[in-house]
């Protein structure tokens, strides 16, 4: 299950998507909107993406994780649009026979997703300002989500 969605991320649905009787470990990571980034207060985050490329990149990352570790199933969901404080903007889940492989694969997937997938985060500050953020890319997207 790989998806971009405007709806809130359902953690239980993500967990069920990777559940398997062959696996003794499921790692589910949720990235949520925090209220403070350093000393700046966040009101909300908004995400935009170049959807065809983002979907393709997430599918490639899931396949790479399954080739690297004994991961039976992967799920990645990234929310688009506005994400209020406390809600999940991203979910990564993997199932594996053993916990170490599941933890390593999930951590690797999250790191690679942030570096490679064309999803941009716009921070809306309580002070009234905004900032675009993407670790691997430096230019903000235009109105169509393209750099």
* Overall body shape: elongated
Known CATH architecture? Alpha-Beta Complex
Tell me the number of helical segments per DSSP (H or I, 4 or more residues long): 3
Write down the secondary-structure element order: EHEEEHEEEHEE
Number of domains: 1
Beta-strand residue fraction: 35-45%
Number of strands: 9
Q: What is the level 1 CATH name?
A: Alpha Beta
CATH superfamily (homologous) name: Molybdopterin biosynthesis MoaE subunit
> Which blocks of ≥5 consecutive residues have pLDDT under 50?
none
Category from helices, strands and their pairing = alpha+beta
Largest sheet, in brief, is: 5 strands, antiparallel
Query: What would the CATH topology be?
Result: Aldehyde Oxidoreductase, domain 3
Compute the CA-based radius of gyration.
16 Å
The residue-averaged pLDDT reads: 91
Helix percent band: 25-40%
Measured between the Cα atoms of the first and last residue, the distance is 27 Å
Task: Walk me through what this model shows.
The protein is 30% helix and 37% strand. The chain has 3 helices and 9 strands; from the N terminus they run βαβββαβββαββ. It has helices spanning 11-18, 51-68, 99-116, and strands at 2-5, 25-32, 36-37, 40-49, 73-79, 81-84, 88-96, 119-125, 130-133. Strands 3, 4, 6, 8 and 9 form a 5-stranded antiparallel sheet that branches. The chain is elongated and about 50 Å long. The model has no long low-confidence stretch (mean pLDDT 91). InterPro entries: MoaE_sf, Mopterin_biosynth_MoaE.
List keywords for this structure.
EC 2.8.1.12; Molybdopterin synthase catalytic subunit; alpha+beta; 147 residues; five-stranded antiparallel beta sheet; MoaE_sf; four-stranded mixed beta sheet; molybdenum cofactor biosynthesis; 3 helices; molybdopterin synthase activity; Aldehyde Oxidoreductase, domain 3; 37% strand
């Amino acid at each position: 299950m790989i998806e971009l969605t405007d709806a809130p991320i359902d953690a239980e649905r993500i967990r069920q998507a990777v559940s398997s009787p062959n696996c003794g470990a499921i790692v589910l990571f949720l990235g949520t909107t925090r209220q403070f980034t350093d000393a700046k207060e966040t009101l909300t985050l908004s995400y935009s993406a170049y959807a065809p490329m983002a979907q393709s990149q997430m599918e490639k990352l899931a396949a790479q994780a399954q080739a690297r570790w004994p991961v039976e199933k992967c799920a990645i969901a990234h929310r688009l649009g506005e994400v209020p404080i406390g809600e999940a903007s991203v979910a990564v889940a993997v199932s594996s026979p053993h916990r170490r492989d599941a933890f390593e694969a999930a951590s690797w997937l999250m790191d690679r997703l942030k570096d490679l997938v064309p999803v941009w985060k716009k921070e809306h500050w309580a002070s009234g300002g905004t900032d675009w953020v993407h670790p691997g890319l430096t230019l903000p997207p235009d109105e169509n989500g393209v750099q």
